[in-house]
Amino acid sequence: MLLDVWARDKITAMMITHDVDEALFLSDEVVMMTSGPFARVGEIVPVNLPRPRVRKEVLAHPDYYRLRRSLLEFLEGPASHSPGAKAA
Fold it and tell me: What is the pTM for the complete model shown?
């Protein structure tokens, strides 16, 4: 498991996922990408949840659902997240 590797080796790893909950559980920061063939970094969200992380404790943390909502709002946001998109 990625958390075991991190705990043992203290490495820096980059992971690509479409799962918001997985991103929050595993990451120290989430780099949100815009949509489309000309995607770019749209937003970087720091994840300051304490380590080591236990899923049940992460879900109970007061910041978890605020962070989750922030990521989902970006993903569901306006088409203007796409470079070159025309404003409605």
Answer: 0.78
